[in-house]
Amino acid sequence: MTDGFTEFLDRAQAFYGQLAANNSRDWFEPRKQGWKDDIEAPAKLLSEIMAEEISRITGDAHIPKLFRIHRDVRFSKDKAPYKTMLAMTWTTADADDLAPAFYFGIRPEDTFVGCGTPGFDKDALTRYRTMVDRWGDRLAAIIDDSGGHLAQIGPAPLKRVPRPYSPDHPHAELMRRKSLALGMPLPPGWRDTGDGLVAALTDRVEALMPFRDFLAERL
After folding, report:
1. In whole angstroms, what is the distance from residue 206 CA to residue 219 CA?
2. What is the spatial distance between Cα 37 and Cα 82, in angstroms, rounded to a whole number?
3. N or C end of the chain: which has fewer CB within 10 A?
4. What are the tens digits of pLDDT across the range 96-116?
5. What's the CATH number where 210 sits?
């Protein structure tokens, strides 16, 4: 039996597609209450349910966060007021834990489930590069085995491999990164199973666990 969130996903994709074509306060305000009732409320419920699932799978308590629809346009040339993607994350409850976060994004054209760190601070970046230098073969194999792809989030990669590492380092692409996240779509045919969105997201979280555990243990 479906969990009801499949219908929510369809509504969200349709709404954000319309919003992308009409990104203005005049268009959104008359539809704001409908968005709150039909999209924001079930999204919050989904994030809370998945927080429990992720906590069960990882063995670590996770806190959900649903990102606001309003964009911060203070320092942006693009003054469109609203985001055209619904996004939620799950991070560990321990503020000192550097374990990667899980992420779910809903866009009009597709969905994205991810795990990673959107940006390393100075100390973490040093540890990350040391880890890639030592364990790069294993990390690359985990990424390949997952069936996912490296996601373009956070700071742009460096143009060159940083010193003191060789310019032709065998894992140059990983070495140039200042953030690291792995992403994948929902499982193929997940709608046909009838199990619902929670089961599909849980499947992706489990697929991302080797990547998550590898980073958590070595960073």
Report:
1. 20
2. 17
3. N
4. 666 899 999 999 999 999 999
5. 3.30.930.20
Domain count, the chain: 1
Provide the residue type at 153 as one letter. Answer: I
Contact 128, 143 (CB under 8 A): no
Instruction: Give dist(CA 98, CA 117) in Å, integer.
Output: 9
Rounded Cα–Cα distance for residues 156 and 158 (Å)? 7
Q: What is this structure's pTM?
A: 0.92
Which position has the token pair 């991070």? Answer: 91
Residue range of the domain that includes 85: 5-218
**Which residues have CB under 8 Å from 75's CB, separation 6+?**
none
Tell me if 187 sits within 8 A of 200, measured CB to CB.
yes
Mean pLDDT along residues 155-164? 94
pLDDT digits (tens, 9 = 90+) for 193-217: 989 999 999 999 999 999 999 999 9
- Based on its alpha-carbon atoms, the radius of gyration of the chain, rounded to whole angstroms, reads 19
Question: Residue 155: is the preceding peptide bond cis (ω within 30°)?
Answer: no
CA–CA distance, 200 with 117 (Å, rounded to integer) = 22
Place of tokens 């704001």: 32
